[in-house]
Design brief:
heterodimer; A: ABC transporter involved in vitamin B12 uptake, BtuC; two-stranded antiparallel ribbon; 13 helices; B: 517 residues; alpha/beta; Rossmann fold; six-stranded mixed sheet; 31% helix
Chain lengths: 354, 517
């Protein structure tokens, strides 16, 4: 009789886990190829076109870097909370609410304030907004042990509806041909770009925050508190750590970073507020954080990969008439495969003939 | 004690059993025999391989090498249910009972039964079994209403109900009062008389010498010796286990120091004082009932009591982990109406929790990282507020050497350490900070003789330098050896306190069951 068992690995090696991550991506790519074939798109030419038109052209790279900006931010936002085993599924809503507050400032002060003043103002406001949006789930979790997965998730829909309200209502551009969009932001309220390219500096915020957050996590006493509490809250308690306070702080900082993503999107790319400012960047952030786990370089790498998925997916939409849902499908499959293969990172399969 | 019939086929025989885990050879070429009607003790330090061997016998996992024979017939178990079917019953140290179900329900859980349960018949069956072996317990009562001794009887009934012929008892007297332990051995005698055989795992030398017929000593996965009880003595066994002449307890020189912080108050004033302290549990039940106690500098107060009578809550209250609802907690003359863990850390309190794995470690983190627990803000680990991991790992490495904590390195994950090593780590961490008083809840439980004596020596030395200690222990010998005064907890109260000179095991044992003379 074949006796199959799982044996816990002594140490989850970085290489093992990365290997399985890449394997999951490969499996997702293959399954994606099957789906493409099912809708009469040749997978090889489809994937080939992504490589040639996205990775080998300058405008492809411009798109990639632009897409990476919000993803780096949401990725590190979720990863920060995840270090304490807090799952911030609300990055999307925090992004939207950050965008709302940014819009308010841009519309009211954009024309009368210089870039040097208004941009930092909007950044700070967006971060406060994101933090506030995360505060309600944070307090509920800290005080009443309400599961943050549910509360943060539901707050997303409130924020998205709030944006709908504003763009259909009070902030609708009277010259916008009745579309649910606000008027365009004044020039000073837009994020500067790199030279003549459309790539805005938001990507730098993401990179900077990754450095800052991981420095805090690995090299400060708060970082130690987070890591210990994340592994064993009882040990954190025994250690004298104020766990309730830490939960609230971490979730609010996570929300703040996601809020900043909202600001960079509308001041760097859209230059106005409208529906669907995000293509699900908040949710993609969850996937990125999960793939990267605790490695800062991992966040950059997987963000880059997810950006390819987004931009490539848009390309396929245009060239092959595929629905936008393809992108979501693909990302979902990656997460599915990653989670499914996750167990092999921690456990080895052992076969014994008995 | 029933004499073993050594000329017959052994009821259980292991030949050359080996079991290997990724980082350790848990059992190496182990031979073991058990004869019918015998009580065979398995002795060994933590990490010696006793639990693994028992897990192989009870079918939890198959051995990697070697053979097992039941009554001469070769067997190999890949599943505990197979072992149970063949009459092997394991009574675990940590009970596996469902608290809010009845005794009868717990006993029949998992056994084949008719769809429509006839509880009356089952109760009768259980009562029969109970009276046959003297395991008196009411089948209709809920587990949560039973004493620990009664719960253990349910555990034993579970295996007897399934027709166990070979019983494995893992540290059964750890949670019993002396009187209850005596009852247990009477019950074991009855089982032996009825033709059953018992494998007995214990740390307590007195019991082992009093009740075993044969003794197998394991060390580092190998069999060190197989002895007949009548041919050996406690000292002889200790010698084999330690590989050196066993010194009389109390004369071992400690290899390291406790950092004892100088107390603020005069040495006559109590360092800590509890006045009329009460506390409740999460369900609102009173668990501490007007506790009054005092500890002076350089004094060890031993606390005896059957587990579950409030000692752990009291320890937590002292450590700041559990709130108290009334009374005053005075530390070095400063009265407090409530305390927090952070405050207690600042005031120089050391606290070794009973449930060490729950509170004391972060399993997924390295040993180095774990040394930061309760020491997060220690300035010696930081250069200008930036954590210096090298200093953390150096510190950890030093402590590992000093306290003989065995692991691959200071970067190993704590979850991979054996229980005894985890404990040593927690202990070393606590006594390496400068402390004024120490609350130690079962500090040597689960440690081998060497490590136990070491820890005891360290505590005694620190006491001479002024450390106050509340020592909660189920080992009455330890309490008598170490304490200046002994108190007994029963039902959330300190039922009596006496100088050690006036304490005897009998007197304490009675107090533990609530009987004041």
């Amino acid at each position: 009789m074949l006796y199959v068992s799982f044996e816990k690995r002594l140490r989850t090696s970085f290489y093992t886990r990365t290997g399985y991550n890449l394997l999951s991506i490969l499996i997702a790519v293959v399954i994606g190829g099957v789906f493409l074939a099912l809708v009469d798109a040749n997978p090889f030419s489809a994937y080939g076109s992504i490589v040639s038109e996205v990775l080998m052209t300058s405008y492809g790279w411009e798109d990639l870097l632009t897409k990476m900006s919000p993803l780096l931010l949401t990725g590190v936002a979720v990863a920060l909370a995840a270090n304490m085993r807090i799952w911030n599924i609300g990055a999307e809503g925090q992004l939207y609410f950050g965008a709302v507050i940014t819009t308010w400032i841009a519309l009211n002060y954009g024309s009368t304030t210089s870039s040097a003043v208004i941009i930092p103002m909007m950044m700070a406001a967006a971060m406060v907004a994101g933090a506030l949006w995360a505060m309600i789930p944070a307090i509920l979790k800290a005080q009443y042990n309400v599961n943050e997965i549910i509360t943060t998730l539901l707050m997303n829909y409130i924020a998205i509806s709030l944006v709908d309200y504003f763009v259909f209502g009070p902030w609708r551009d009277p010259k916008g041909l009745n579309f649910p969009i606000t008027e365009e932001f004044a020039a000073s309220a837009n994020l500067p770009t790199f030279g003549d390219s459309p790539v805005h500096i938001g990507i730098l915020f993401g990179l900077a925050l990754i450095v800052i957050i991981y420095f805090v996590l690995k090299k400060t006493n708060i970082g130690v508190q987070i890591t210990i509490t994340g592994d064993n809250p009882d040990a954190g308690f025994y250690s004298g750590i104020n766990i309730k306070r830490l939960i609230i702080i971490i979730l609010m900082v996570s929300g703040a970073i996601a809020g900043l993503a909202g600001m960079t999107e509308i001041t760097g790319v859209q230059h106005r507020l409208r529906q669907n400012i995000s293509l699900g960047y908040g949710f993609t952030g969850v996937i990125i954080a999960w793939l990267a786990r605790n490695h800062p370089l991992g966040i950059v790498f997987y963000t880059f990969f997810m950006a390819i998925v987004f931009v490539g997916g848009e390309l396929l939409q245009i060239n092959y008439g595929l629905p936008k849902a393809m992108i979501d499908l693909f990302q979902g499959m990656i997460l599915f495969c990653v989670l499914g293969l996750e167990i092999f990172g921690a456990y080895k399969l052992k076969f014994k003939w008995v | 004690m029933t004499p073993a019939n050594e000329t017959s086929i052994p009821v259980l025989e292991l030949r050359g059993i080996s079991k290997i885990f990724p980082d350790v050879i848990a059992n190496e070429n182990v031979d073991f025999t058990l004869y019918k009607g015998e009580i065979h003790t398995l002795l060994g330090e933590n990490g010696a391989g006793k639990s693994t061997l028992m897990n192989v016998i009870s079918g939890l996992y198959p051995a990697d090498a070697g053979e097992m024979f039941l009554n001469g017939e070769k067997v190999r178990f890949t599943d505990p249910s197979q072992a149970i079917e063949r009459g092997i019953g394991m009574v675990h140290q940590h009970f596996m009972l469902i608290k809010n179900m009845t005794v009868a329900e717990n006993i029949i859980l998992g056994t084949p039964q008719r769809f429509h349960l006839n509880m009356k018949k089952i109760h009768a069956q259980i009562s029969d079994l109970s009276s046959k072996y003297g395991l008196m317990v009411d089948p209709a009562r809920m587990i949560q209403d039973l004493t620990v001794g009664e719960q253990q009887r349910v555990e034993i009934l579970k295996v007897l109900y399934r027709g166990a012929n070979i019983l494995i008892l893992d540290e059964p007297t750890a949670v019993l009062s002396p009187q209850e332990s005596d009852s247990l051995f009477e019950i074991i005698d009855r089982m032996l008389e009825s033709g059953r055989s018992v494998i007995f795992i214990s740390h307590k030398m007195k019991e082992v010498m009093a009740h075993s017929i044969r003794i197998t000593i394991l060390g580092r996965g190998k069999v060190l010796a197989v002895l007949d009880q009548k041919d050996t003595s406690a000292a002889g066994i200790a010698k084999i286990m330690m590989g050196q002449v066993a010194g009389k307890s109390g004369t071992v020189e400690p290899k390291h120091d406790i950092l004892v912080a100088k107390p603020v108050t005069a040495s006559d004033a109590p360092v800590i004082k509890l006045e009329n302290v009460c506390a409740t549990d999460e369900r609102g039940h009173q668990v501490l009932d007007n506790i009054n106690l005092e500890l002076k500098a350089g004094e060890i107060l031993g606390m005896a009591g059957i587990s579950g009578n409030g000692q752990t809550v009291l320890a937590k209250v002292l450590g700041g982990l559990h709130p108290f609802t009334s009374g005053t907690y005075t530390i070095e003359g400063k009265p407090f109406k409530q305390v927090s863990v952070t405050q207690m850390l600042k005031m120089g309190m050391g606290y070794i929790p009973e449930d060490r794995k729950k509170y004391g470690i972060a399993k997924g983190l390295t040993i180095g990282n774990n040394f930061l627990i309760r020491d997060v803000d220690n300035p010696s680990f930081y250069n200008a507020r930036i954590l210096n991991w090298k200093s953390v790992f150096n510190y950890a490495r030093g402590k590992m050497k000093l306290f003989d904590i065995r692991a691959a390195s200071e970067k190993s994950l704590v979850g991979n350490l054996s229980g005894g090593n985890i404990q040593k780590m927690i202990l070393s961490r606590e006594i390496s900070r400068p402390i004024k008083f120490l609350v130690a809840n079962q500090p040597i439980r689960g440690l081998d003789i060497n490590a136990s004596q070491d820890i005891q020596a360290v505590i005694r030395k620190a006491k001479k330098e002024g450390l106050s200690v509340l020592l909660i222990s189920e080992d009455l010998d330890e309490l008598l050896l170490m304490s200046d005064r002994i108190c007994v907890m029963y039902n959330g109260r300190i039922i009596d306190t006496m100088p050690t000179a006036e304490a005897t095991i009998e007197r304490i044992g009675l107090l533990m069951t609530g009987i004041r003379k």
